[in-house]
Amino acid sequence: MTREEVLAMESGPDMDDHVAEYVMGYLIDRFIFRHNGMEEPCRVWIDAGGKTHNPRKLSTDISAAWKVFDKFEMPELKKWFDPEYDEWYKCSIGNNHISERQAPLAICRCALLSVMEGKDAK
After folding, report:
1. Deepest of 70, 78, 85, 89, by most Cβ within 10 A of its Cβ?
2. pLDDT confidence of residue 118
3. Which uninterrupted H or E stretch holds 75?
């Protein structure tokens, strides 16, 4: 994955899976759940100890994004107000600085870029 791909990635399940895998260290297991003739795509996250976790909304839910934020040494999140565009959030991890309208998205993008550049999570 390139920097440009991370910056273009929208918040949602795809970004959540990338953050879970590359930042949090989970394996992603995708499967088809079949019941009463219906099929539904499903996924679970598996941690290093083999425990399964239901996917969390890391890129859209701030309570989930804090888990990502806490994986790094001395991350920083700032909020500021722009009279024209309301509020913005700037996440900084190492040399990466990402500004977004939503804090969880700023955290996830910055975390992915930091891991890609060798700033390993704790």
Report:
1. 89
2. 82
3. none
